[in-house]
Amino acid sequence: MQKKNVTRKILRTAALFSALLMILPLLFSCSHEHAFGEWVTDEQKHTRSCTVKKCEETESGEHEFGEPATVKEPGAQTEGLREYKCAVCGYSYTETIPQRLSLTLEEFDEFDTHTALQKKYLSSPVSRVPAGAVGELEQSTQGSPIFTWHLEGLAEGEELTTYTLAISDKEDMSDAKTYKTRFYQYDRNNGFNFYIRRRYYWQVTATVKLADGTEIEEKSKISTFRTLDGPRTLSVDGIANFRDLGGVDADGGQIRQGMIFRCGRLNTNYKKQASVSATGKKTLIELGIKTEIDLRGAINDSGVYQNGFKADGSETMYSWGGDQINYYLFPAIYYDSILNNSDGKKMVKDAFEVLANPESYPIIFHCSIGTDRTGILAFLIEGICGVDYEYMERDYLFSNFANIGSSRDETKFLAVTAAVRNQKGSNYIEKCTAYLLSIGVTRAQIDSVRNILIEKD
Ligand SMILES: [Zn+2]
Ligand SMILES: [Zn+2]
In the chain, what are the domains? Predict the structure, then answer.
């Protein structure tokens, strides 16, 4: 009974209290219908106030933009315009619509010019040439980046005619080499013969045929990447085992790139038939080769040199690489002890006479497969320039990436270079110099080769 009374009392108090709450606002508010003035706007919101005297009522809110209206459609290469309007206050602003076509690049910062197999060799101990590079396959050429891009925004009736990829070592894209494709990617099986340690720039142009038949060109931005360390491998069609001696650290700087190349023969043994192709000859011209030094020495039963000419000197010697190349034959037959043999010493001495002349450059030198006689001459040139011993050994063994008919190992390198390693000297500049002086190369010739080839820091 008592409990019921308490409940009733609480209910009565609550009803009275809520009635009071409802009356309170009426006591303090205006007793008119608001008459709002014009909206005042800024970029975010709209506000308006009641125009009735003494009334301070305002109304405010964020703009309510719905879907924009297109004022002007974008063209393939022209911007459009769209308008956003607040549904409440009418405030509006416009925004440009980008042109329809967009050509974007998949950018990259660095590129190692070596193939996966070459990289594996270059990053493992020098004594270990990875399986697969055993001198039986031509795998000595440069690896290629896969240049990739995306074209978006083609309208109905528009089509891509061609993409042009331009690559230059200059920021303004001057002297760019160009490559055409209809695909959205481009790479080259045998690489681009990039310099190593060099910055490159690339840009793609899409030629698009519009619906009315006119052709327009859409250009991407210019992107850039840098190539990493050497050895600088190259592809010259029809010549195996082609490498630049340049791009490596040397005494006081580095060896210049594009000056002196080692390679395999330009024609096969005893045959007057070039193995270097028309494309390969074009590359030799692009490389600006002025001199070819041929170290092949064997003579067959008919008295013909390995290079195809008669050993009796009754024929004019010339380069299989083309008329623009001065050809020298300094024949020597290969033995591991070649640096101790008289014809080997003569081969080196004669070669240094040509190497010491600045007019000779750029030079290619080779024997048959560009491995041993070529490797020894490369070793002596790199040696007097102060190239790191391990790099010289690696360069020699790198020939295992070419089709040289068999493989070379560290033991072979040590045997071939013994005559130099046994010289007096605290480093290979001194040892190589001592050897060269001992066979009749002059100090002036050695200095000249160093001056021509070392690019000072
Ligand atoms: Zn009011
Ligand atoms: Zn608004």
Answer: 33-98 (no CATH), 102-227 (2.60.40.10), 232-456 (3.90.190.10)
Strands 102-105 and 454-456: unpaired
Q: What radius of gyration do the chain's Cα atoms show? A: 39
- The Cα 138–Cα 156 span in angstroms is 47
pLDDT digits (tens, 9 = 90+) for 74-122: 999 999 999 999 999 999 999 999 999 999 999 999 999 999 999 998 9
Q: Cα–Cα distances in Å, from 135 out to 91, 115, 303, 401, 404?
A: 76, 16, 30, 6, 5
Ligand nearest to the CA of 87: 2
Structure tokens at 62: 């964020």
Closest ligand to Cα 36: 1
The CA distance from 321 to 380, in Å, is 25
Tell me what percent of the residues of the chain surpass a pLDDT of 70: 93
Distance from the alpha carbon of residue 85 to the mean position of ligand 1, in angstroms: 28
pLDDT tens for each residue of 5-43: 666 666 666 666 666 555 555 555 557 899 999 999 999
CA 59 to ligand 1 center in whole angstroms: 11
Q: What is the pTM of this model?
A: 0.85
